[in-house]
Amino acid sequence: MEKLSAEDRLFVLTGAGVSAESGLPTFRGINGLWRGYPVEDVATPEAFAADPAMVWQFYSERRQRHESVRPNPAHVALGDIERALEDRFFLCTQNVDSLHEQAGSQRVVHMHGRLMQSRCSRTLCRTLPFDDRNLYRTRGEIPNCPKCGALVRPHICWFGEVPFQMELILQQLDGATVLLTVGTSGVVEPAASFVRMARLNRARTIYVGPEEPSNSEYFDEVLLGKAGELLPSFVNVPLG
Ligand code: OAD
Ligand code: ZN
Asked: Is 177 left (phi over 0), alpha (psi -120 to 50) or beta?
């Protein structure tokens, strides 16, 4: 891995793999969360309309599990890199967990939303997402929006929905000279295409994870290994 210079701007994209060593299952591959689980039955607006209690049970279980997990050395390393680079660093995560923040990351955007936030389920209702660690298991427990009365839903980007903060993300990607992608299988768009966009700008592109992602041909360097083992040595790379 070559050194970063004082002119470099680092864009980091993380996926479920960065949280795997914290004990949160990835979506695909061995021990994938969705193996044997019909995810199309829970992660869609249609599923929520048909059975909101079932969808909330799924996310409530994930909220409960999140209470007992901690950041791993990969999250910590990314926090350290940010402290060195300051505003030459940007972190875009596909993860809905809060482990990057718990490890000290500040310039982090959650393109797929946040497990610990909820919002009104009515698309045109202008109320903002709010912090929410509550668990809802029955229809009666699900609160209603104080403004319009619709049911409250998880603040998560479901299948068929548009990811959050794309304008800021694409602007940051456009200004990056180095793209570091960590622990994502490279199949879910639009994140899977970030590496091609970065390449068009002649940015250096690096992948870190135990297996090749499906878009591996677009990376200049593919570093095979666990994020928690490889990223801490990344920090030791002198940062100009
Ligand atoms: P995936 O589950 O598709 O891929 C996880 C990747 O992490 C795999 O390529 C693994 O090889 C890798 N991995 C496993 N252990 C690792 C470790 N210790 N260190 C580094 N990498 C490791 O997860 P994503 O690509 O993040 O969307 O999935 C993208 C989106 O698909 C998710 O954000 C989710 C889902 O639809 C929503 O929830 C909206
Ligand atoms: Zn509302």
From this structure: alpha
